[in-house]
Amino acid sequence: MAKKKGFFTKALDVIERVGNKLPDPFVLFIGLAFFMILLSFVFSLFGATVAHPGTGEELQIRNLLSGEGLQFILTSMLDNFTGFAPLGLVLAMMLGIGLAEKVGLLDYAIRKTILKSPPFLLTYTVVFTGILGNLASDAAVVLVPPLGALVFYKVGRHPLAGLAAGFAGAGAGFTANLFIAGTDALLAGISTEAVAIIDDTITVTPVDNWYFNIVSVFLLTFVGGLLTSKFVEPRLGEYKGEAVEEENTEELPNAKKGFFAALITGVLYWAIIVVVIMLPDSPLRGEGGTIIPSPFIDGIVPLILIFFVLIGLAFGIVTGKIKSGKDMSRYMTESISDMAGYIVLVFAIAQFIAYFNWSNLGTWVAVNGAEFLQEVEFTGFGLIIGYIIFTSLMNFLITSGSAKWAIEAPIFIPMFLQLGYDPAFTQVAYRIADSSVNIITPLFPYMVIILAFMQRYDKNASIGTYISLMLPYSIAFLIAWIILLAVFYFTGLPYGPGVYTFFEDRP
Predict the structure, then answer these.
(1) Distance between CA atoms of 314 and 328, rounded to whole angstroms?
(2) β partners of residue 499
(3) Is-contact 307 180, C-beta < 8 A?
(4) Over 70: is that where the pLDDT of 19 sits?
(5) C-alpha–C-alpha distance, residues 147 and 154, integer Å
(6) Residue 58: exposed, middle, or buried by beta-carbon count in 10 A (0-12, 13-18, 19+)?
(7) How many CA atoms lie within 13 A of 86 on its CB side?
């Protein structure tokens, strides 16, 4: 007799079926671009207008099916693509981070951090390493959880608890980091494009959420470690499964020396930057000697790019992975090759946002949406919580963080800017909703991989086992993050250099 499904299981089944019917993200954005064309035609028929919030100019909704609109579509297509802010930011970051990953530096650092962790810190180290592992992009999701399971197994603890802790950090905490990562560049670029609908002088930089991300790392490490030790592991009980084969831990020759060479190189590099900043009349300071804003902040992406290139070179040369400039070029090429799918997606995203902007539909939605929220008095922190819940639910249908933000940013960033919220603050709210719910969405591409790792230790593990294991982390991370956001919101703490909840507080 078939086991009767509960409400939650049925709900997940429905979400999975609906999500599977959605087209590929590239096709989705091509469809949205065509929808913008038709929508502009309909709005123009009714003579819709909107007053620009900055200039007060009365703007007509421009018809993309008109002669002028068709000219714009054809003549701007390439510029929309090549001028799309996230494209250059992300590819530049991946040149550096990709080199450090391809030569094995990030892999070595992750492995050693977990394998050499003191027993009393093991749980927290696994979560912490998973969170920081997003520097290696999706590689952390594949590397950290099985390492966590293996180490837990070797010290006599339940391996599924170690796997869950590692996956919670890498999967649900991926948006937090102590360093500036590719995710920061990607989201900041989309945010800059979106805010241009209202004001093209505003820029969201990759460091605008940095302070919040740093605090998030330690908060989520504590929450994830405590949850694992006090709830997940006791619930799993004593592990009585069969022994498993140990993973291959073979290292590159001179890997330890290479790591220290990379560490020394990185410290010296940033020390030089600090010295240059401290010099009188430093070229990295702004007018009047300010740090915020300054050429240092504006040039943070190239500085980070150079940092990762230098430490990647140091590790690669010492370990023999880089023997000539040709090797360096090859690894960088491979890292960009990994971004091919993203580059294709950007072409479609860029057209959608450009049409939304040119037609003035973006301004119309932002102004009228903000006025509606004010009229119904749905503003303040309650509005932000509502937006976080909305994005969390959207995550069940669209798992790609960049694709989802490309849809939401042109709507919510201009709208919330009209309510006074800084675009970087709206981006923070998006990030915590998108990140924390990732691990329980049926369409998350790494669910199958993690399930396979689980079955190494428990052959009877299924989707139900997976959900019951990861759901507590998703809920705990989301609640903890909302509380942290409330602390920043109500105390006026900066989310990054010169970035606060309200745009008017920017220096």
Answers:
(1) 11
(2) 496
(3) no
(4) no
(5) 11
(6) exposed
(7) 28
**Distance (Å, rounded) from C-alpha 414 to C-alpha 408?**
10
Six token digits for residue 356: 């939304």
- What pTM, to 2 d.p., does this model score? 0.81
Alpha carbon distances (Å) from 344 to 25, 91, 347, 354: 10, 13, 6, 16
Residue indicated by tokens 């490309």: 406
Distances from the Cα of 390 to the Cαs of 203, 211, 345, 385, 386, in angstroms? Answer: 25, 25, 24, 9, 6
Helix (H), strand (E), coil (C) string for 82-101: HCCHHHHHHHHHHHHHHHHH
Question: Distance (Å, rounded) from C-alpha 220 to C-alpha 37?
Answer: 43
Write out pLDDT tens, residues 423-465.
999 999 999 999 999 888 866 767 777 888 888 888 888 777 8
pLDDT single digits (tens) 42-84:
999 998 998 887 777 898 999 999 999 999 999 999 999 998 8
Size of the chain, expressed as the number of residues it contains:
507
- Reported as type and span, the H/E element at residue 471 is helix 463-491
Helices (H), ranges, 320-462: 325-337, 340-358, 361-375, 381-394, 401-418, 423-437, 447-457
* 8 A C-beta contact, residue 104 and residue 139: no
